[in-house]
Amino acid sequence: MSEWTDLVVVKIVEWLIPFGLGLLVRKRVGRFLIKIKRKLFNDAVTFKIISVRSYNPVETHDFNLNVYEDVRARITNPRLHDIFPDGIRIEIPTFGILNLSMNRISEQEEEENREEAIESIKLTLQPESPVRLGTRDIRLLNHYAQSAEVLFSAVERLFVTHSAIRQNYTVLEFPRLGRFVEEKAFEIEDEELGTRVHATQNKLTLTVSPTSQMTKATSKYFLV
User: Same domain, yes or no, for 188 and 168?
Assistant: First the structure.
């Protein structure tokens, strides 16, 4: 009986090993073929971007047309849509309308008068609609990164009293390939690219700091 049991176990192991290797190879081959197909046909990928820059509490001023005058010579074909005391809507090629807003982040002081204290000044830049690029066109993110730097720098010069930057990062959210994912969920800290990679089965999130590394980080990770 023991010999028969051992024989069954051996046969099961002999079957499981090639079966498991076959699945592994099929998954890798499947992912490879999907990546080749997406690059060959320049399949479009739709994703979200949000860039954030924050500062210590400082004196700020309302937005005015000076910001548009400042950036239009340094951004390719910008188009002003609206301007508000705390923000601007400006359109650039490929990425559509960008909404740049300035927020004063408050916290309640632990005092009887409960006055609000400004904890930080936060600039947020975000395309109003999800971005859609071909797989081979990810390099165009360089244009977004350059435009973001121009806009943030203009606001700093014109409307924010000089202060050291507390945070400076961009978050990108991509849908993951529906089939042949190598790992359903994982998290990576890429120190070389200043990028935190967080993946679930359906979504890939890249948090990149500084924003200038977003093209390299996206090229490396958005098809994982």
Answer: yes
